[in-house]
Amino acid sequence: MSKRRKFLIPCDEANRVCDKSQYEEASLWEKIKLSIHLIFCKFCRTYSKNNAKLTHKIKESKVECLDKTCKESMKKDFEKALKDYSN
Length: 87
Description:
single chain, 87 residues, mainly alpha, 79% helix, Glycine dehydrogenase
């Protein structure tokens, strides 16, 4: 494998590494290869920017999730209402 080949990755792998990077799961080597890919690929640069914006907005939103018991209660109520409606 040539030295140049080690640094080049296809777009689908670049997008996967971009996703991993957003969640701080990408290795240093993956980040380096992604950075090199982004220099040459306009489409992946756009994907990476949009991904970063989305991650920032989600963190900024401070969305509160329901706890497990509340979800189960809602599911039971929904199933009951669905059963009552179909009868």
